[in-house]
Each structure stands twice: as C-alpha cells, then as structure tokens.
Amino acid sequence: MIFNKNTAKKTAEVLLQINAIKLSPKEPFTWASGWKSPIYCDNRIVLSFPPIRNYIRETMANHIEKQYGKPDVIAGVATGAIGIGMLVAQYLDLPFIYVRPDAKGHGRKNQIEGFIESGQNVVVVEDLISTGKSSLNAVKALKEANINVKGMVAIFTYGFDVAAENFKKEGIMLQTLSNYDNLLEQALDTNYISQKELETLSEWNTNPSEWNAI
Description:
Elements: H1 5-17, E1 21-23, E2 29-30, E3 36-37, E4 39-41, H2 50-68, E5 73-77, H3 82-92, E6 96-99, E7 112-113, E8 121-129, H4 133-144, E9 148-157, H5 161-170, E10 174-179, H6 180-189, H7 195-206
Parallel strand pairs: 5-6, 5-8, 8-9, 9-10
Antiparallel strand pairs: 1-4, 2-3, 6-7
C-alpha cells in the first residue's frame, strides 16, 4: 500500500533523477538471485543528496506519526535501511536500533543492535521490498525479543505478488512511499521510457523469475 498517489509520483520522480532507480529494458541487469531484470534499485544513493534524503526522511516520519502515533523506537533493516532509518528516528526524536540478517558469530552475538526493552513498540524502516523475506526476517527477530512490531514502512516496492502474500501471512502492515506501477507511470509521463519499453517492464513484473529480455 502506498502512502498516497502524489507522494508515490514525487518519490518515483526523485529516485529516477538521481539514478537510485535505473530502468534498462534493452540491457537488463542480473540480480544476486540470478534473475534478469530491466530495473535496478539502490536507494542508499538517496543519502548522498541532502534535499532528497530530507524529503524521504520527513515524508516517512510524518506518515509514521500519523499512522501509528509515535512508537517507542525506530528499527532499520541492515544494511540498506540503517541510514534512512536513523534519519527518520532523529527527525522524530526517537531511539534507533537496527536488525542484522543473522546474529553475529562473535562478541555478544547480537542480531538486534542498539538498546530496546521487551514490550516496546517499534516501526520498522526498510529501503526496498522485493520478495519481503529479508524484511520479515527482521520482524521475526524483533518479535522473538518480545518487541511489538506496529508495522513497516519502505521507500519502494517492486509490488511482487509473493511479497504481498508474505506480509499478509505474517500479519504485518507494509506501506511504501512509491511502488512499481507509479514508477512506470512517472517514467512514461517524463519520457524516461517509451510505450514499447513500458510493455517490456510490465511483462517482467508479472513473472520476474522467468523473464528474459528479447
């Protein structure tokens, strides 16, 4: 679920402007999973552009407060969402923690880094949602520590059906600043892509694991 249409279009616009999202239907990227993809998203680039990171920070923070009230803590998912999560926490004057994919194999063997108490309320911040597995892994770690997860907010989602199913199964509300449909709409409106490229990009989104560029 996106915050609202205006936010979704604006967010897509700024992500395209700074090449945090790149669309390349003719020369697709290869993801770590091995999938061929006409889109690549690296929202960490947002941190290098102060006006844009401020827009993302403030929009996300204001929505969190409106949707959930102030939680006790903001949690970022390592590593991509540590930066933006910390900025959101600072804007809301809240403590910040982050969650590793797995517990460390040395030292205190933490998976959750930072101070949080059992029973506190947390909103999880993520930068990008693909299948949702890594994001929900962080939620699982928080729940196992007896933390009350109010929901998750993210900058962008590819909008895969499998992600929606995974979040629904775990009972976690996910809301994003923008999504794939609004990205394509914005890209077409600004002539970033052609109608033919739009068709290719839409085809990929329906079956990304099997898609191959022609």
